[in-house]
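Protein entry
_____________
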Amino acid sequence: MERHHTTLQDVDMDMRQITTTLKRLVLGFPIPVLFNDQLLERSCALDCGLTFVETEIGAIYLHGMDQPNGAQYEFDIYLQGLPIYSSHSYTSHRHIIHLDSSRFHARLPDRDKLVDEADVIKLVKAVLAQTIEQRLIQMKATQSAEDFVGFYEILRHWELLKLLNDVPVVPPEALREIIAYPVCDTEVFGSFEQRPEKAMTRADIAARGIVSIDDDIKQDGAGRYLFAWGRDYLLYHGTLDNGHWIHTLIRHLNDEELVIETVNETHQAQFQGDWCWIDVRFCEAYQIRLGRDVVEIRDHACYQGQENADDIIVPKGDCSAQVLQQMASFRSEYEEFQESTFESDSDAFVAFVVANTASDPANAMQRLLPDFCGCPALYGKTFVVELDQQGKPASVMAYPAAKSVQAQTLVADIGS
């Protein structure tokens, strides 16, 4: 092989910069290049061992198409072996495109930019998408359905989800399961949804049931989400092509009237916290009705939302403050989570629920009292506590020593 030698003189660049630049320039070069007797890597060249596909714009190598979701969306373009365009460079794994030099040209004298670059890049993306589609169609004919849906992300990126329309399984990315109590802000309180662990068949989805819900919990309440959670429905993530068979199975809960009815409601009271003020209804349980279906809930409170009754229903089995996570995100105008206010309102709500559900006043007082373990001077003592009309301590008096008992006792005289 004939060798051509180039000697650099009086170049205002240090050796590391020269080396880095040369390594980048020769990655797609058509002939071997030595620098200081060291052979430089040509990992993107047409003769580097990669499999290129001939297209109308030149040769294309598709990276990562041999494994589910291994494919990349970015690409590098070479013209006459020199790099001339690179899309977003956040990844080193990229498609490689060598343009046909008889059709495309570089700007002189530096040849560092394509002539009519915007038009060329638009054409390149279109041909790249067509080439990827052809490859995916070939893969669809040879792979199992479970393996093929693993390419969901690249199908979505290149707007090729229509290729899944007749595939008998659904990728997990298109589905969600409700795994915890629904809340209004998943960034603050944690997500209550997760993807299924694997793709699901049509039979599995039909047997379990799948629904769509468009509610904003803080505005519309959590009724539909609690209904779906109670029935263990799947949630549709809203990403598949309109012609996909899954749409014949989806039940759109927002198309059905939501009715929530209490069971053995006892009374109503207003909670007044630092952040949350709201009417609360106490009951044995409540029923969520959508269409002809009813779900009865006994152990989780429900916020009905500003667009509905704008109140909270607390059944007998829930003595927590978790329902506040449905009605408020506790974020400031600067989107900062107000943790201390959240904790204060949560503690106050728990006390509020206890006070409204305890079997008798003494039981309520016992459940609401704090722990006095850090105050040894109070151990073994007896006190008389009087509360005013607002529930605030009006007076606390030590009980006569002669009347004290071994175990700490509380006598409460609640003002009427």
Observations:
- The longest strand covers residues 277-283.
- Residues 404-410, 412-416 have pLDDT under 50 and may be disordered.
- Residues 117-142 form the longest helix (26 residues).
- DSSP finds eleven helices and 24 strands in the chain.
